[in-house]
Amino acid sequence: xxxxxxxxxxxxxxxxxxxxxxxxxxxxxxxxxxxxxxxxxxxxxxxxxxxxxxxxxxxxxxxxxxxxxxxxxxxxxxxxxxxxxxxxxxxxxxxxxxxxxxxxxxxxxxxxxxxxxxxxxxxxxxxxxxxxxxxxxxxxxxxxxxxxxxxxxxxxxxxxxxxxxxxxxxxxxxxxxxxxxxxxxxxxxxxxxxxxxxxxxxxxxxxxxxxxxxxxxxxxxxxxxxxxxxxxxxxxxxxxxxxxxxxxxxxxxxxxxxxxxxxxxxxxxxxxxxxxxxxxxxxxxxxxxxxxxxxxxxxxxxxxxxxxxxxxxxxxxxxxxxxxxxxxxxxxxxxxxxxxxxxxxxxxxxxxxxxxxxxxxxxxxxxxxxxxxxxxxxxxxxxxxxxxxxxxxxxxxxxxxxxxxxxxxxxxxxxxxxxxxxxxxxxxxxxxxxxxxxxxxxxxxxxxxxxxxxxxxxxxxxxxxxxxxx
Amino acid sequence: xxxxxxxxxxxxxxxxxxxxxxxxxxxxxxxxxxxxxxxxxxxxxxxxxxxxxxxxxxxxxxxxxxxxxxxxxxxxxxxxxxxxxxxxxxxxxxxxxxxxxxxxxxxxxxxxxxxxxxxxxxxxxxxxxxxxxxxxxxxxxxxxxxxxxxxxxxxxxxxxxxxxxxxxxxxxxxxxxxxxxxxxxxxxxxxxxxxxxxxxxxxxxxxxxxxx
Lengths: 470, 212
Ligand code: SF4
Known about the structure:
Number of helices of chain B: 8
Order of helices and strands of chain B: EHHEHEHEHEEEHHH
Radius of gyration of chain A: 21 Å
Bound molecules: iron/sulfur cluster
Shape of chain B: globular
Strand content of chain B: 15-25%
Oligomer: heterodimer
């Protein structure tokens, strides 16, 4: 038996058939569905007179369009409402293993509710019409985003036509220092390899720093793999994985649990397995990160400064920096900690889990949002995260500090609902994309960790969260 | 899917790296439950001076004269040359739908983001990867020669100027080429293997009953 990577094991165990040119029919175990990328797929299925292959593989929710306030009033935007109601009708007509509709107690961002319900399990292939499906790879799954035609294809056939990617090992040695999180790790990696650095690859994250992370923190890292250009990110299964999953509603129980864990323990790269590309990072060198531009690779340590395009020799890169600085309204060489912010968004599938909220609350406790900050909002990733946070009193901590405590959903991560930046507004955001207009036309996004976002809310500008704790 | 065999068309340049899917089709237009009609909102934030929302009369909106696709010389372009990592960001297939609906049949860049690249084929849109220096040359030629056209032959896997002075071959997998040349229905092709899928599924769920 040749030594296999985790990716080899996950991919090869789902191959239904393989063509001579390397095209593979890959079996899909879990299909996550949300309202934005599914309506055309269900319609296509209907028009062709087809039915879903295995509805028990489907877990669905409405998250992108749903409001985060005044739930009793429903969805006011008629176009958004139609999309959510279309999902309701499609699931009603064809069925699913689970559906968490708008206002359900367990509704939430699709990448938060999959893991928390135990619908994401090690060894699975997981797909969703959403690029951040890579999140689920934290559970030793092969999880990746697909387009709407492929959503229809999976609905109809339970398979995807695909090819094996190259493999990349990101090994992070030693431990992250206090105040430096897995979000900083992910941003630092993207800063190093670039947003196209992982293109054509499936990344496996390994090393002491990764082993030491909680499941929540591992999900943050895998979530951001797509921002590094990789379609999938994954982490080997271990006791941290099993402890998280034990007792979750859709996780196996009893004898099945023992059998499952015995299998899951094999889900790691074999000693000496070969990767196409290897990147080694030292966790102890990492510092809190803040993006300054319009691509996640435009990132600096909080101790750094906004770059000076005059010092960039490559003409295309220089132009890219200039364009980004103009859009972001930043002068070259400005210290990161001098950048003042208007809004703060703590949420998204990257950083809206209970641990993220605890980290932000720890900073917010006993402090006040700066008067110059127009809005600081906390949007839990799911109804269950929200309930857990309230049981721990975190909502009070946030409210007392002047943050708004909202209903779960994607919210200002992509601003499809009412939560958005106005032109020119500057935001400290725990989400994953700082593209032009991502959080609202003309809005300026700086990506940071939850603790860094909370610290910026309190100070009114970016601060080194490590200093706050002395 | 729509078949693609040969295509000759006007070339437009989009001189930016990392053009993301939010830029190609902003999120407010993703609320549609249809597959068509996205063309007028392609690159909406760059193309118009006002803020676009679904349902607006796009013909009446103020155009941004500084945006390349609004230049008269590129009206009717059907081939887009772009810089590296084109189509990064979300998995939204609305991005290739918008490009196709606008009238593009092919895209040429040094690299594309994975999901976007894959999605293009589903709309009969051909993404072509060419070496960075060749793409740079195409940018120069487009700028230098108004009305610059390229001829793409999928069967021969070539991009060429109509006079044949420039010919460059490109790679594509045999499977993708076949599907695109013949406009095959992916789902029907896969369902021809329904027995193999069923056999795999039965064994897989027997071995890992917790997946059922
Ligand atoms: S939270 Fe943001 S990135 Fe995550 S699924 Fe929602 S919109 Fe996409």
